[in-house]
């Protein structure tokens, strides 16, 4: 059994590395005692406060252990078709996963923008979402588009048509886990359809370029948020260094005065 698991890991290296990354981020979150507001994404944080980096960190983060386990299991199951199949491969899986992650982030913002600005649901601005589920739901709808109309997924012994499966999973997840992000999962599904419908036009490098543009926005946002903190730390350090230098100069002056006094001949009494 151990050998077969090892062979599956070797057969799906990118998915295995993906799982290791999600687990590592989860462990880091708990070791640093972080919570949903620290790593999650909301319309208020991303759009109004310009924290675009949250669109990336939120999808790689899990605060709940159960949430992590469910998404890791779903990821491993999806990777059997997305990376392990004969007509796919590692580059295919990596490229499409990065594209789904990017488009899911865009869809997340777009759906909440519509809800808040058109439907006047102002309370949605502060809904915080985390988890890799967006990408997984994206893979579901992508495989539903590319697998053909007669394809089906086997779940608990039941055959579910591929074109129905993403929507059935969306409804099932929302009912069984009310805290799950309906909008996040919906954004993933729409991203998967968009990617599937343009599958013949997209190469690995197209996906990488789109993700690179997204990453530039993430890094720029993170740098903008981090710069004031670094500047404050720099000012604190330079002011401390200036004070230390001033104290050293004063001590040097005192030593020089003492040396001059010691060098003067004693006056006769």
Descriptive report:
The chain is mainly alpha-helical and 269 residues long. It is 72% helix and 3% strand. The chain has eleven helices and two strands. The chain has helices at 2-11, 13-31, 36-39, 43-48, 54-60, 65-82, 90-117, 133-147, 165-176, 182-197, 204-263, and strands spanning 152-155, 158-161. Strands 1-2 form a two-stranded antiparallel ribbon. Strand 1 (152-155) and strand 2 form a beta hairpin. Helix 7 (90-117) crosses helix 11 (204-263) and helix 8 (133-147) packs parallel to helix 10. The N and C termini lie far apart (101 Å).
% residues in beta strands: under 5%
Uncertain residue segments:
none
Sketch the major β-sheet.
2 strands, antiparallel
How many angstroms separate the termini? 101 Å
General form:
elongated
- The overall pLDDT average reads 83
Oligomeric state of the chains in view: single chain
Radius of gyration, CA atoms, in whole angstroms? 28 Å
The side-by-side strand order for the widest beta sheet comes to 1-2
Number of alpha- plus pi-helical segments: 11
Order of helices and strands: HHHHHHHHEEHHH
- Total beta strands: 2
The computed structural class is: mainly alpha
- Approximately how much helix is present in the residues? over 70%
Briefly say what this structure is.
The protein is mainly α and 269 residues long.
């Amino acid at each position: 059994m151990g050998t077969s698991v090892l062979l599956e890991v070797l057969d799906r290296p990118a998915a295995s590395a993906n799982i290791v990354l999600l687990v590592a981020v989860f462990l880091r979150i708990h070791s640093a005692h972080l919570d949903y507001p620290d790593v999650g994404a909301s319309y208020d944080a991303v759009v109004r406060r310009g924290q675009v980096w949250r669109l990336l960190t939120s999808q790689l983060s899990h605060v709940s252990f159960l949430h992590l386990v469910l998404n890791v299991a779903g990821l491993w199951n999806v990777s059997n078709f997305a990376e392990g199949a004969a007509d796919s491969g590692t580059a295919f899986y990596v490229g499409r996963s990065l594209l789904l992650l990017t488009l899911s982030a865009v869809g997340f913002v777009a759906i909440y923008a519509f809800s808040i600005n058109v439907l006047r649901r102002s309370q949605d601005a502060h809904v915080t979402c985390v988890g890799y589920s967006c990408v997984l739901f994206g893979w579901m709808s992508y495989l539903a588009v590319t697998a053909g109309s007669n394809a089906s997924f086997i779940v608990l012994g039941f055959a579910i048509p591929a074109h129905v499966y993403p929507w059935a999973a969306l409804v099932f997840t929302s009912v069984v886990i009310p805290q799950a992000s309906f909008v996040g999962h919906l954004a993933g599904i729409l991203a998967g359809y968009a990617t599937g419908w343009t599958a013949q036009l997209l190469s690995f490098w197209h996906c990488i370029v789109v993700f690179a543009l997204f990453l530039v926005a993430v890094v720029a946002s993170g740098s903008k948020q981090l710069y004031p903190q670094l500047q404050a730390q720099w000012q604190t350090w330079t002011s401390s260094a200036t004070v230390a230098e001033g104290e050293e100069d004063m001590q040097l002056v005192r030593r020089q005065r003492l040396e001059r006094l010691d060098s003067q001949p004693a006056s006769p009494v």
